[in-house]
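Why do we bother with holo predictions? Because pocket geometry can differ from the apo form. Keep that in mind while you read this record for zinc ion.
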Amino acid sequence: MRGDRCWSVEKRSWIALLLGVATGLAATTARAADCPGHPDALGTSRVLVVDPREHPRIGAMQYKETLPLHDHEVVLTFDDGPLPKYSNQVLQILADQCVKATFFTIGHQAQANPEGVRKLAAAGHTIGTHSQTHPLTFNKMTLEQARPEVDQGIASVKAALGNNASALSPFFRVPGLLRAEAVEGYVGSLGVQMWSADFLADDWRNISSAKVYELAIKRLEARHKGILLLHDIHERTVLALPKILHELKARGYRIVQVVPATANRPATPTEPQDWLVHRPSDNVPVAQWPDIPSFDFTGATTHLSLTSTDVSLLSSGPTTTRRAARETAWPPVTSPASRQTAAALPVPAADLFEIQAPIPRLLARHDALPAQPLRRAAKAARRPVRVASLRKR
Ligand SMILES: [Zn+2]
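The structure, written out:
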């Protein structure tokens, strides 16, 4: 009897092992087959189905919850497109590696380049939204001001998708990660998931593509998994991406695509604690983790609300020069492609793209950086930046 049970257990173990090997082989085969002509592609290892209503706010940089990724799993996200010049190159690089990502598109960009949005859908990527005009004031707006930005961004991307509007996922990322409680409440009421990020590569700043690569890998290695925020509107990102993907594969990382649950597609089974940035067992001093830290993309120094690890990582980047403080994630408004479609677009008000960088309020309270550069950065941040001047750089 006992011997039978042992044999039975042993037999089941062997069957499980063989099934596991077979499944692994099948997965590998499927990935290779899915990427014809690219046998060494990184591939997309699995699809994670999430229910935005169960987990309305995600991203370790700002929230208590983030995606329930396993060790060495990475989710790639790209903001601010589509901008044909660079977005198309990003799409080609991802296609060559059979990697699926999530794109947080801007409504205005979608209006200027609807074909770019349709390309994302045709390539099977996940599409979210990122407001209509990318104002870097979401943290100061009234809900009445913020709501049209959210709504119109969604409407513009849906319009670009036409009869394939269901390809738009209920995912939203606030410009500059400038979160606000009222906006989060509104977005949540729509059944839309707020996405922050787990780590950045600073690709909106005036740094080299080598630095973007270095930061992406360094910060990933500090976490061993997570949501990486990039921008598909910068040359430096295009140049860094192939190297980042190559290195991910070399270091044993796997790409996960995230899609929303639907009536026919239930959420991937997870446990509540899988979503916690810090499980109760994690030995992390509470003081390092403010409940929902503020974040400001527009001034490098306001990263200081992050963890001490983040701060030390971020401080390895460019210092808070006047130039760095003025940089934004907003792309040039009139790309060659959008110029072609300009006649079909409403003429924006003269000040529509005037980006008033917020004064980094946290600077004065942080004594780890010298005071003089901080004062210069704050002064620079008060100056409005016109897109025309951004374009020159
Ligand atoms: Zn953005």
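The two ends are 79 Å apart (CA to CA).
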